Each structure stands twice: as C-alpha cells, then as structure tokens.
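Priority: medium. Attachment 1 of 2:
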C-alpha cells in the first residue's frame, strides 16, 4: 500500500478518534452535580447564560436554537433542578421540561412531633407555607395521622400535597395494624393513646407496658394524669424556646384545657402528637397480664412500674434522692 495512503489513513483515524473523544468528554460524560435554579421572570437568554456559566452547557446559542425549535421559554419553569456539568443542551431542556430533574429537599419528621413542629421544619426548608399546612391539619383534624418518616419534596410544594404524602404513608404503614390487632377502641382513640405513649417512651420494649398502664387507667375510670397532655395544652414555651415544656409546675397541672388529663377524665379530644408505628402497635397489642397503673422515670430514661399508689410514691421518692 502506498506510504502516503497509510499516513493519510492514520491521520484520519487519529482525527476521528480525537473528535469522538472530544464529543464524549465535552457533551456526554457525566460531570459533577449542579443544583441549578430558574427564578420567576427569567428569559431564555438569561437561563442559557447561567447554564453556561455553571458549566452545564457549552453553547448558549445552541441551547436557544434547540429551545426555539422544540419548545418555548414558558417550558423553562421556575424552580431548582438537579443537573450536571457537560450536559447536551437537548438533555438539559428535556430534563427541565419533564420535571424529572426537579431538585427535591429531604425532610425528616420525628416521632412525637406535633403538627406545629412539622410546620416549622417545612418553613425552614422552604417546602410549603406553614400556615396553610396548619390550617388544613386543624380543619381536617389530622394531628396523629402525619406519619413520622423521611420525605422528599420540591420547594413551594402545595400544603395539601405535603399532607397527602404524610397521610398516605400513615395508611401504608399503620392502617394494617388495625386489622392485625382488633380493638374496641376507635382509630382516633388508639392514636390518642399512642401519641401519649410516644411522648413518654424512649425505649421500644417499654412502649407496650406504658400503653398497658394508660389502658388500665381508662378501664377503671382513673384519670390518665399524663404530663405530655399538659405540655401539649401549654403550647409553645417562650422561656425555653420550645414546645413540650420541661419541669411542669402545680400551676401548669391546673390548666383548664380539655387536653389536660390531670383535670379531665378519659381521653383528651384527640392525639397530642404524631406517633410511630411502634407506639400504635403497643396500644393495639399492650403488655399482656400487666396490671400496673403507675410508672415513674428512673433517671436513666427507663421507667419503674407500680400497681399501688403507695408503691408508686416510694419509688418516686427513691429516684428523687438519686438525682
């Protein structure tokens, strides 16, 4: 073969290979993650400029051409998107238009939080309007049904959509328990007791025992006298800058709220928090043959249970001396 032809072919192969590598590394190789925000009122040109500035696209001109041929500026909806550097303009546009790249914020709600605490976290993460959230929760009486879990929401999600996600999780995780463990209590009553158990218990193995205590007291017509119900009634404590006031006083225990189980017999009007799966299960399946009607914290996070008032007082004084 002619030497010149061989050289020409080698140069051609090198050129084609180089061009292919250029295309791969500059357009198709996955780059580093970029959270890109389109703000309300931005023009297509401004979006293209910012995309290039952040290294997402290589050419603003090509991006605008693709946009004009296949879409319109209205498809560039305001919001945050998860993109990468060195993306083809077509991929960027499709990603934004489809909503598949919409940036989601992680939200973890804890067991035993009241709806106001969830609303504060939603506001902090700019997920939804906390007032709209609380309005719907109160109107639909959903305290107790907002299942504690980890969720992923986009910013400015409608409050009803956030609530639906939490209630749906409750339906998936907790609802089956009611079929597994039949009870004479209503669903709301179970959640009410479970919410109190949630605020009292730290260790899972104690939940069925604490649940049994409250169910025993209900059965014999004895007031629950549960501190968390008073804390719920008191609401936000400005001195401590938190909900769930510590160190309740005798004045606190005289609060006239219907949620105060020191003043009122039976169950409070509804759940005082959003309980975990374990606390609901504990109420539906309490500790068997457990006849205690008192318990006191033992300074380790656990509790000591008693059948009689005198026994309870002795234990209470014992743990006071150990503090």
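Attachment 2 of 2:
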């Amino acid at each position: 073969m002619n030497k010149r032809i061989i050289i020409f072919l080698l140069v051609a192969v090198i050129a084609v290979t180089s061009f292919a590598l250029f295309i791969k590394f500059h357009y198709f190789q996955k780059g580093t993650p970029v959270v890109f925000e389109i703000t309300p009122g931005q023009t297509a040109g401004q979006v293209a400029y910012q995309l290039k500035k952040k290294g997402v696209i290589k050419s603003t001109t090509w991006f605008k051409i693709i946009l004009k041929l296949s879409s319109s500026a209205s498809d560039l909806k305001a919001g945050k998107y998860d993109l990468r550097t060195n993306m083809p303009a077509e991929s960027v546009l499709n990603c934004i238009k489809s909503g598949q790249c919409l940036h989601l914020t992680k939200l973890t709600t804890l067991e035993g939080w009241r709806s106001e605490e969830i609303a504060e976290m939603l506001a902090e993460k700019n997920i939804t309007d906390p007032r709209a959230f609380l309005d719907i929760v109160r109107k639909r009486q959903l305290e107790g049904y907002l299942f504690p879990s980890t969720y992923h929401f986009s910013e400015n999600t409608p409050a009803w959509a956030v609530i639906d996600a939490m209630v749906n999780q409750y339906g998936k995780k907790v609802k089956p328990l009611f079929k597994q463990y039949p009870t004479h209590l209503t669903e709301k009553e179970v959640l009410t007791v479970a919410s109190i158990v949630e605020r009292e218990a730290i260790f899972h193995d104690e939940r069925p025992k604490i649940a049994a205590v409250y169910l025993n007291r209900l059965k014999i017509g004895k007031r629950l006298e549960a501190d968390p119900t008073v804390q719920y009634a008191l609401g936000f404590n400005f001195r401590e800058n938190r909900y769930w006031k510590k160190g309740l006083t005798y004045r606190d225990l005289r609060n006239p709220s219907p949620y105060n189980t020191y003043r009122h017999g039976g169950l409070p009007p509804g759940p005082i928090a959003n309980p975990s799966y374990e606390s609901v299960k504990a109420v539906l399946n309490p500790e068997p043959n457990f006849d205690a009607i008192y318990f006191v914290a033992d300074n380790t996070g656990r509790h000591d249970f008693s059948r009689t008032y005198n026994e309870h007082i002795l234990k209470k004084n014992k743990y006071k001396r150990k503090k």
